[in-house]
């Protein structure tokens, strides 16, 4: 259960090598989170992440998880919830893809869509059901500001996040009053390995800043969190720019 400060005592991360997820886990472990499950493809990076959190005092377990293998999701995640209640699930897996390459390679574009949307739908529904069964918990889903409006520069990635964004909002409505809190995170450009080589956008942020916003959102029981918060105003304006004009904007 969460403690008096709203900090989860147990955490399941889907996408266990995500820099945002690990920054969040470090922050929560520094508070009162004691049990952490890191789910992801087995790799030295996953093992290193687990070791780092153990050094901070957490009881850390790793779980083989592949976003693209939806048939394996239910048995894999069932093993986690069978070990005890999970106070928070952080869905943090996803790939950016390469827009130029993926436009010419439908299979590559489908991989982006299946990872960011289909895989996330499967994992979210399974975790939501488990949280509902135990009667409490938070499901935190990393979306993106790219979900707000398709841009020429990354519409394949953006469309996959738009689907996830809409799905998460609907799931939150479906679970309202069940004891399960669903929170959607919409960060802008985050300085991570995934964005290396991509020109930095205005209002760029860091994994640590996103982690802080997630913790604040948990405490406030927020449903949607923008990182940084000023992006909410910016995107509200961009949503209403006429399409012929939007096409010519350097975004």
Automatic annotation (TrEMBL):
InterPro entries: NAD(P)-bd_dom_sf (IPR036291), Sc_DH/Rdtase_CS (IPR020904), SDR_fam (IPR002347). It comes from the Bacteria. Gene3D superfamilies: NAD(P)-binding Rossmann-like Domain (3.40.50.720). Keywords: Oxidoreductase. The keyword Oxidoreductase applies. It holds the Pfam family adh_short. The keyword Cytoplasm does not apply. Belongs to the short-chain dehydrogenases/reductases (SDR) family. This is Decaprenylphospho-beta-D-erythro-pentofuranosid-2 -ulose 2-reductase. It comes from Streptomyces crystallinus.
């Amino acid at each position: 259960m969460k403690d008096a400060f709203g900090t989860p005592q147990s955490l399941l991360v889907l996408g266990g090598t995500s820099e945002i997820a690990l920054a969040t886990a470090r922050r929560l472990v520094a508070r009162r989170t004691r049990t952490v499950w890191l789910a992801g493809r087995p790799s030295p990076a996953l093992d290193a992440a687990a070791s780092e959190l153990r050094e901070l005092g957490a009881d850390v377990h790793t779980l083989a998880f592949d976003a693209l293998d939806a048939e394996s999701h239910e048995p894999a995640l069932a093993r986690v919830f069978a070990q005890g209640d999970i106070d928070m699930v952080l869905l943090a897996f996803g790939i950016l893809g390469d827009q130029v390459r993926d436009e010419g390679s439908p299979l590559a574009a489908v991989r982006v869509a299946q990872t960011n949307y289909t895989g996330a739908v499967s994992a979210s529904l399974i975790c939501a059901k488990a949280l509902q069964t135990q009667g409490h918990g938070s499901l935190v889903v990393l979306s993106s500001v790219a979900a707000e409006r398709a841009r020429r520069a990354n519409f394949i990635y953006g469309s996959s996040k738009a689907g996830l964004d809409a799905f998460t909002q609907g799931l939150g409505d479906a679970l309202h009053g069940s004891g399960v809190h669903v929170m959607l995170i919409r960060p802008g450009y985050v300085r991570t390995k995934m964005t290396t080589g991509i020109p930095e956008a205005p209002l760029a942020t860091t994994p640590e800043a996103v982690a802080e916003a997630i913790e604040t959102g948990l405490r406030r029981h927020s449903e949607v969190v923008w990182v940084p918060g000023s992006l909410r105003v910016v995107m509200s304006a961009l949503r209403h720019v006429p399409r012929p004009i939007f096409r010519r904007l350097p975004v």
